[in-house]
Structure formats: structure tokens, C-alpha cells
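Q: What would this chain look like folded?
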Amino acid sequence: MLLTPTDTVSNRALSSASSAKTIHSTSKTASKTVPFSPLKTTQQLSSAELQPLKMLVSLLMEAVVIVDEHGTIQLINEHAIDLLLADALEADEPTTSPTLIGQQWQTYLMEPQKTLYQKMIIESRTGARPLNHAPAETTLRLANDACKDVEVSITHFALSTPLFAIVIRDLTKYRAEYKQLHQWASTDCLTKLANRRVFDAELQNHWQSCTDKNRPVSVLIIDIDHFKSFNDKYGHILGDYCLQKIAKAIESSLPDLDCTAARYGGEEFAIILPNSNASQVAQTARLIQKNINDLSYIDIGLDASVSVSVSQGHASEINGQFRTSTALLCAADTALYRAKADGRNRINACV
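A: My prediction, written as C-alpha cells:
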């Protein structure tokens, strides 16, 4: 159902020659701007002009609002009503269909878009204005004062009375899907830590930021000791549970939210600690070692005597010690293998 102002057309006496002239002028509107004639109302539009527009708006699956040059709503379809009044409709349970005809479209806009729209209206009365506006993201304030992220595009209808079609696309679903896809693309599905791709990007970002400000940045690499033997003895399912428990212990040991903990590969984890020197990263490593050594695996069906340890290696960039972030990472990796060679369940620093 399409809601419109009264369908009574006061100017039915328009001649066919005048209509032809209007259609001819419409076909010539190919430039980006057009000067506007004095204000008319939709009652002054001929049926030949208005009826196809009403039918088009009612058939479109998008939310569409037709406004005049003052922003007053002249036509609106059900999809637009559902979008703008959805929550209010559910709460009030009206017995008659609501109408937004005659309301100002800009009342649904938030700043700065509302001010920009008002400015556009004022400027249109003194000169030419752009005919069309490409899709742009904005936020609408709905009837119940809730906010909704949308994409809005504006198309001009060059009729004898200028009208504008505002197409509104609800971005809520797409934002949720994007957020989910981003999470899947950036998170290790087993441990819920960052994945290798995110780690590499964050390392470069923190390296650039810290070295530009002459601040330290450290890397800590953690490897589970004898994890292959654990998998061979208890199976890969319990091995996955073990990885999850260790990941949680690592994440809970981070000194602040600026740090990035990632599953680096297999049974190996890595942490970036921006603004942390060698002493600070060593303190974090000791806390991680303690938290992992204190883990119990009774909850996954193993004996209380079962324990898992990790070996750790770390390196810190201070005053130009390393030339690149890759060199810093390699230094931490070398320190890790020294820790493993020294007997495991150890922490080794690159000096």
C-alpha cells in the first residue's frame, strides 16, 4: 500500500500541449544542476506526471520517500514506513495505517547531515542545486528516538514541480555480517586469539608507531613443550582443549589492552607489547609461565598429575637495536629456541 496526499488534482485543465512541453523539458535535463521554478504543490502536478511515480514508488522493494524541495514528504511506501516507524508500530499496535505525509524528512536526520540538508534547501531557493546525490552512509533518528545506520541516495524527478526520491537502505544487517566476517578473518577459530595475519599487521603498525616516537616495543614468542607427545598420548581433541586453556592463560596475563596475543602457528603463540622494554616483557613472560604451570586439566578428563609447560623467548627494540620488525621477531624466535635447548619451561631474552 502506498500512502499519498489526496489524489484530487486541482489542475485537471492542463492542456496536452503543456504536458508535452513538460515531458520535452524533462528529457533535456542532463546537466548536473538546474534552476527551479516557483514552488508548486503536488496537487498542481498532472495525473500523467504523478500517477507513474506513485506506481513506481509502491512497487519498489527499497524504502522510498518522495519529498518536495522543502523536504516535506509527499509520497512514501510501506517499506519506508516500516523502517522509520518499526519499533513504534510494534509498541502502539495501531488499528489504522500510519502516515508520514506532510512531515519534514529532515527531522529524521542527525547532525551534521541535518544542517547540511537545511543548507541545501536554502541554497536551492536562490540558485541551482545538484540533481542527484550518490549513496552515502548516515544515521537516522527514528520515531522512538532509536538510531539506525542507513545508506541514503537522492534522485531528482524533473517534473513541473521538482520532487526528490530518497532511497533508504538499512545497513544494520550488513554491518552485523561485516562484523562477523571481519571476526572470522582476523581470529583463530580454535583459541579465539588473533591469527597470524593480524599479528603480522599489528607488529608492523606498532613497530612504526613506537620507533617514530622513540618508544620501546617488544615481542614474546611462546611454544608448548612436548606438545606432539601430549597429542599422541591423549588425542587431538584433548590437544585442542589444551590449546584453548593455554590461550586463555596467555590472554589473561597481558599487561594492557594495547598488547596483541596471537596464535602464531600450531602450538606456538606470539605477543606484541608496545611501549614495553625488556624488563617489562620479562615480567609478563614470568606471569604467563606461572599461570600455565598452574593449569589443571581435570575438567577435560585428565588426571590431576598432568601438567603442560611452555618455553618463551623475547626481544625488545630500544634505541635502534633492530632495523626492522622482522629482525625483532627473528631475535625473539632465536631466544625461544635457546630456551628450549636449555631444557624447556624456561624464559630466554635476546641480549
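Residues 189 and 195 are 9 Å apart (CA to CA).
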